[in-house]
Amino acid sequence: MICKTVKLTGNIARRTFSLSKYATNKIGGKYTVTLIPGDGIGKEISESVKTIFKAQKVPVEFEQIDITGQIKAGEKNELFKQSIESLKRNKVGLKGILYTPSEQSDHLSFNVSLRKVVYLDVYANLTLIKNIPGYETAHKNVDFVIIRENTEGEYSGLEHQSVPGVVESLKIITRTKSERISRFAFDYALKNNRKKVTVIHKANIMKLGDGFFRKTFFEIAKNYPQIEATDLIVDNASMQAVSKPQKFDVLVMPNLYGNIMSNIGAALVGGPGVVPSANYGEEYALFEPGCRHVGLDIAGKGMANPTALILSSTMLLRHLSLDDHANAIERAVYDVLLKSNVRTPDIKGTASTTSFTNAILDQLERSS
């Protein structure tokens, strides 16, 4: 893995891993990228990204797959197979969030399935939690990274009813995957001038599962003596996140805790509409909003905040070594948020998705 640090004006830095040493699908001077808009507000915020890329002449051609998680019980979705084939062919994708109904026991989450070993094995989710310049929240100087193991833990999908009225749900923790996510976290910290990596766990209760994850983390930490290695129990970490988030630097954790902590982190800096993330594996990379919120309640109302997906798309561009385009788009987003009153309702504004996107386009034109 190659790690890149990109410095922007105003001391805004988005540090992301780049896997661009792997062959991507580039035809006629353009990269082909799989686009999965997703459900809810997905198509609206995806249109924002497509509009900005087109205006900036970004050398990316989207191969769009309109898969949905809103299917009936027992119904198959052939587009899932097409999505996997497209992602494997193109090596890189941008996606919104796919709906997963809680009441359908036979409906596996497409979001989770895409990350699994049998498909893409994008094992590391990287979510950036950082204050937005110009948008005041209860906490200032928040700047930490959540690294989540994506492929096992409570999301193994291994559940069964052993006898009527008794359900067993298996949490899988393996040495191989605990080692590689720990290495990923320390490598990220080392190459991005981060000083501390904290493992989040519940080893005081789940002594074998989380205890093994924690033990493996500290074994890997011995190879990185220049990085401070610490640990926190997940309930304490949740409390610290809402009281003293400035103490956090890089956090690494199993799957479920990563989901919860990402949502807490998003709430600290403006909500699910502003937090970007990426999923990395050895061969593929998939970029998406850091909080998996579908937004069914506001779908079609033109009020969705596209910031998270736009910033995720700039992480994608850096992955493709298109740093100039990434920097220009990211700078324009932050300039609009810092210097204007054009904001969507979720961050105390009245702007529509379209008008917010247009403000970014105007800022890009002024800066060109």
UniProtKB/TrEMBL annotation:
The lineage's top-level taxon is Eukaryota
Q: Which Pfam families match?
A: Iso_dh
Q: What is its main location?
A: mitochondrion
Q: Name one GO cellular component term.
A: isocitrate dehydrogenase complex (NAD+)
- Reported EC number(s) for this entry are 1.1.1.41
Q: What do we know about how this protein assembles, alone or with others?
A: Octamer of two non-identical subunits IDH1 and IDH2.
Q: Which InterPro entries match?
A: IsoCit/isopropylmalate_DH_CS, Isocitrate_DH_NAD, IsoPropMal-DH-like_dom
Question: What is this protein's name?
Answer: Isocitrate dehydrogenase [NAD] subunit 1, mitochondrial
Cross-referenced Gene3D superfamilies: Isopropylmalate Dehydrogenase
Q: Name one GO molecular function term.
A: NAD binding
PROSITE patterns reported in the protein's UniProt record: IDH_IMDH
User: Organism, per UniProt?
Assistant: Pneumocystis jirovecii (strain RU7)
Q: Give the UniProt subcellular location, in the record's own words.
A: Mitochondrion
| Alphabetical keyword list | Magnesium, Mitochondrion, Transit peptide, Tricarboxylic acid cycle
Q: Does the keyword Isomerase apply?
A: no
Q: Which GO terms describe its biological process?
A: isocitrate metabolic process; tricarboxylic acid cycle
Which family does the entry's similarity section mention? Belongs to the isocitrate and isopropylmalate dehydrogenases family.
Give every Isopropylmalate dehydrogenase-like domain span. Answer: 32-360
Enzymatic reactions: D-threo-isocitrate + NAD(+) = 2-oxoglutarate + CO2 + NADH
